[in-house]
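Ticket opened by: R.M.
Priority: normal
Category: complex prediction / small molecule

The reporter submitted a protein together with FE2/S2 (inorganic) cluster and asked that the result be attached to this ticket for the collaborator who will pick it up next week. Submitted input follows.
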Amino acid sequence: MSVRRLAEDQFQPAAFAFNDENAVWADKTIQKYPAGRQQSAVIPLLMRAQEQDGWVTRAAIEKVADMLDMAYIRVLEVATFYTQFQLGPVGTRAHVQVCGTTPCMLRGSEKLMGVCRSKIHQHPFERNAEGTLSWEEVECLGACVNAPMIMIGKDTYEDLTPERLEEIIDTFNAGNGASVKPGPQIDRHFSSPEGGPTSLLTEEPKAKAKTSAKKADADAVSVPPSEAARPKSTDAETNAALKTPVTAPKAAAKNAAAEAAPAANEKPAKAAAAPIAAKPSLEDKNRPAGIAKPAAPDDLKLISGVGPKIEAILNELGIFTFAQVGAWKKAEREWVDGYLNFKGRIERDDWVKQAKALAKGGEAEYIKVFGKKPR
Ligand code: FES
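Result attached by the on-call engineer:
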């Protein structure tokens, strides 16, 4: 571990005080803990001090210690132990933390650090000429599956190329960091495989499906007739299959099990007792009205519960905007829920409330309503 010391005196401000909003928040946070245990609030308070001033100053450490009735050295120990606390001034618009641990290193983190060296400063923890940017190398940030990645503030930016990192740094330096969407920077849904799911698929490519069918015959795997006749899959079904342990012994059974996962290990009689609900008709009067694709359709994936596949299905139904989803009546929601075989997920995730917020004021309104960024 690197040596972590407080910044030189020349950088240290004479005093620290939480602003009004943070002072109220700090008091509430301290009150969460029983009498005599207030020091448990030390990490949240230090983190809030860092969020306010950009880094943890000596004055902030002393202020937090006073507030929690702790010795200065105890708070200093915490601040110098945890690497998420910055002990010196960092860029005012972005401090870029580049993961350099093995998976990210194997996927190109060295090149990302090269971008930081050329665009920010040759050395980590040094600021650029304007004082707006700084960078450092950090250990694994837990998004290895989408390596290489960086973190700025509380957000991660994943699946990066040097070119994309240059764009992100430029955007933050221009003061528009909030416009950069966190997460994967390629067409990947969270941490699912690039290009979409590759296993436990219910829809196989035709050639592969034929082979699987032959194998299934040969292996004489029996699938309850009601399940074999199940309608084509959706994301929800795929997710359900992924969550259900599949223990069918033969390879061919796995393909069948993906179709019939909920019942694969049940006795046929039991499986027959829970028939799959019929998919509602496209001609049903409760089907929400569709529209022609607008020039700039909304990104429906911002609604929690909508991934690329579901968005494509909604688009096929003529659903392209948040306003459309936000206006769905109960019967329409039930129709869509049944069509996607979502088993009530649209209500549980409250698509309508999410869509109304996004239609009203985009991400800013969503954050105001839900207290977090969409997705
Ligand atoms: S190795 Fe980079 S996030 Fe885990």
